[in-house]
Amino acid sequence: MAAKAEKMVFVWEGTDKKGSRIKGEMEGASDAIVKADLRRQGINPLKVRKKPKPLFGGTKKITTKDIAIFSRQLATMMSAGVPLVQAFEIVGRGHENPAMQDLILAIKTDIEGGTPLADALGKHPAHFDELFVNLVRAGEQAGALETLLDKIATYKEKTEALKSKIKKALMYPAAVIVVAFIVTTILLLFVVPQFESLFQGFGADLPAFTQMVINLSRWLQAYWYIVFAVIGIGTFALVQANKRSAEFRRRRDILALKIPVVGELLRKSAIARFARTLSTMFAAGVPLVEAMESVAGATGNALYAEATLKMRDDTASGTQLQASMRATNLFPNMVVQMVAIGEESGSLEGMLSKVADFYEQEVDDMVDGLSSLMEPMIMAILGVLVGGLVIAMYLPIFKLGAVV
């Protein structure tokens, strides 16, 4: 079945039957087709051109949140008895993000051509990972696509909620540190020099603290371009290393787990993801050894990913999952014991789901606790930085007042 020509939006100008100049927008496969449509409507087209994409606020990138929402919409449509192709049409046409709309409609076109849903999704690995595709394939093969789509939607929603909690815990202090750096730099570059020129007429020695701040201001005025160049190059180098080097990401993840408080938060998050993903794979009927590779990629931490792949090899050779987990020394005893009970009772999926629920709640509680703890600490840091600079500048004035 031939794919339909992609429609684009064209901006046109023309004259109506009375000769009045009018303009508007129209969808079409080409400018020639748009001109023909306009003539049929009694409009004489003068200019027809493709609508340019706006520089700002144009097509948004497809995010993991978009995929999670799409999963829930599709699961809801399927459970309501809407045919698959029609469900894609409804969800695609109604999406606010044009990029997501194009993706959904492209998948719909493949399905209309006879491609299985899993294969159609697999053509877009940047948005639908191996775990998503494998779960859909398992649902198609078992004839339980509606049930599996619901489980996928639940899984995506819970993992997105977990990610947002982690970002909330880490981004707030990082943003405040950046603001503190900017404010301090502005004070040192523009405010302190004004006080320095004032102090030159005092004819007396400045307090040591004030002199230290003035020296720091002079140094920053002389070498500010070097400071900003080092920060810019360093940030770029870190971003590129994180993007291109697997070893860098591994070392970063290992180091992150050793950071006080934050490391414990990341550890609990990795365990929650491990348990939630493996539970979902079991629910889809995916064998343990096959499931472990997808689980490794979903943990979000290189150390836990390596441990999961080691556990896959151990279970493939006949070792029990709980024994393999214990050997990694990365999982708390409670998790290992619950997995052991699940293996013995044949309810591993349910036990893993309970583990995921417990650790997701733990992460939630830790984020709330960190937020409450961080606020006074951040205010104290800002107070010391900005207040210290203000005090340093006013100390000579206080000293002069005492002499007078």
- CA-to-CA gap between the ends? 95 Å
- Characterize the overall form: flat
DSSP, total strands: 3
Order of strands in the sheet with most strands: 2-1-3
Low-pLDDT sequence parts: 1-5
H and E order? EEHEHHHHHHHHHHHHHH
Rg result = 30 Å
Structural class: mainly alpha
Question: Residue-averaged pLDDT, rounded?
Answer: 82
Characterize the biggest β-sheet: 3 strands, antiparallel
Q: Treating each run of at least 4 consecutive H or I residues as one helix, how many helices?
A: 15
**Percentage of residues assigned to helices:** over 70%
Which percent band covers the strand fraction?
5-15%
Keywords:
single chain, 404 residues, mainly alpha, three-stranded antiparallel sheet, 15 helices
